[in-house]
Amino acid sequence: MRVRVQADPFDLGAEANAFVARQKGAQAGAIVTFTGIVRDIADGLDVMEIEHYPGMTERALDAIIDQAHQRWPLADAFVLHRYGRMHADEAIMMVATAARHRKDAFEAAEFLMDYLKSRAPFWKKEHSAQNAAWVAAREEDETALNRWSD
Amino acid sequence: MIEVLYFAWVRERIGTPRETVETDAETVQALVDQLRAREPRYAAAFQDLSALRVAVDQELTDFTAPLAGAREVAFFPPMTGG
Hints:
The complex is a heterodimer of chains A (150) and B (82).
Chain A: E1 3-6, H1 12-21, E2 30-37, E3 47-52, H2 56-71, E4 74-82, E5 84-86, E6 91-99, H3 102-119, E7 122-127, E8 132-134, H4 139-143
Parallel strand pairs in A: 1-4
Antiparallel strand pairs in A: 2-6, 3-5, 3-7, 4-6, 7-8
Helix pairs in contact in A: 2-3
Chain B: E1 2-6, H1 8-14, E2 18-21, H2 28-38, H3 40-45, E3 53-56, E4 59-61, E5 72-76
C-alpha cells in the first residue's frame, strides 16, 4: 500500500516498523520518515479540523508518489495523511521513503512533502475558544515547488 | 448535468458541499459565470478567482479548462495539507 487516508490517529513507530519490514530483500540501505505534528496557535488550539476531497486525495497522492519514483531510484514510498479533528501535538501525517542510498531517500521525502502540501486536496481549519479560521496557503510552500521543476 | 463540489470556505460561503447543476457551459469559466449570476452567495464565493483552485474530474486544472464530457467539477481554496 502506497497511500492511506484515515481519520484515526496512527502509531508512528508501528508504521515505520511495518515500512522497514516490507523492504526486506530490496537492498534499501536508507529509509527516511517524516512526521507532521499539529502545532498550537497563539490563542490556544482547541481543535484542528482537516477537510479533504475523498477520491481526488488518493489519486493526487498516488500521482505524486509516481513522480517521486520517476525522479529517484526508490525501492518504496508511502504517504499516510489524516483528516477530521485532531489536537495539538498529535501526528497529522507521515511520509516514508526507501532507497539504496540516503540522498535519494531524503530528497524524495522532501519532494513528497513539498508536493503534497500544496497539490493534495487537504484544507486545515484551526478552532480556538474564540475563533475558527481556515489556514491560508503560504507563499513559500508554492515557491518550494520551484526547486523541483528542472 | 454536472456535479459541482465545494470545499473549505468555498463550501461554507455557498452553504452546500455539492449540488447537481444543469448547465451548457463549455468551460469552467463559463460555469463560474452562470453560478455567479444565481445568487449573491455564489457571487461572493467566486469574487476573486485568484483565491480559488479548480479540479475537473478530480484533476487539478485552471479556469479555461473545457467541460465537455466532465462529470465533476470542484472549487476550493489553495490546499494546506502536510
